[in-house]
Specification:
223 residues; 7 helices; six-stranded antiparallel β-sheet; five-stranded mixed β-sheet; globular
Length: 223
């Protein structure tokens, strides 16, 4: 993943500035994998599945011949008292940014190392060093090869990303930096970083804009 991102960056003009480094890297990808961000195509679900209209989802499980699982990141709890909507049925997921190293084997299917430094954990199973990026109940699931077929059909746009870009898209980067520098208590950081109901479209827009920027850079470099 990182090697592929380096190749894309080099094709787009080489060295990135400090602000760009802080925002991480992100680019469109035709191939779905664990850690892929899914951007619901505008209008794709507006009438038949409004709960997915302009949704942003993070792929937690995907593989050849395996069921795919993702959670929606931009559907917060409107009461701000509990987890948001992560999908239709399923478990309580927390997407956390972690400085700790967790040992996760095949016998722990409810935990996933999604990106370097980003984990998906079920329920309240967290370490003190972890910070919540998304707190949701439910998940989306697809039969083997079904999600890739939806991406190929243009229902979803798939994006490869690193952990910095994911935090940037969710709008949590400033709160995370302050927390890591000791400026916030752990629980305060969780509450501050939880998405407000009005910000669901903002997350979708930030991801769409980041993808447009990456596409424009790649197009310019290819001319």
């Amino acid at each position: 993943r990182d090697v592929r991102a380096s190749l894309v960056a080099s094709q787009g003009g080489g060295h990135r500035t400090a602000p760009e480094e802080k925002r991480g890297w992100i680019h469109a990808s035709p191939v779905v994998e664990v850690g892929t961000l899914l951007l619901a195509t505008a209008g794709a679900f507006a009438l038949n599945r409004p709960e997915l209209h302009r949704a942003v989802a993070l792929v937690l499980r995907h593989g050849r011949g395996q069921e795919s699982v993702a959670v929606i990141l931009n559907r917060p709890d409107p009461t701000e008292r509990g987890p948001g909507f992560g999908g239709l049925g399923g478990r309580h997921w927390r997407i956390v940014s972690s400085t700790a190293v967790r040992s996760m084997g095949a016998h722990e299917p409810d935990h996933a190392l999604v990106l370097r430094g980003i984990e998906a954990v079920v329920g309240d199973d967290m370490m003190p060093e972890e910070f919540v990026l998304a707190d949701v109940i439910g998940e989306l699931s697809w039969a083997p090869d079904e999600l890739q077929a939806e991406v190929d059909a243009g229902v979803w746009q798939a994006a490869a990303t690193d952990s910095k870009a994911l935090v940037d898209v969710l709008g949590c980067e400033d709160r995370q930096e302050e927390a890591e520098n000791g400026g916030l208590e752990h629980i305060d950081w969780i509450q501050e970083c939880k998405l407000q109901p009005s910000l669901g479209i903002d997350v979708w827009t930030r991801l769409a804009n980041r993808l447009c920027e990456a596409t424009a850079v790649a197009t310019t470099a290819g001319q």
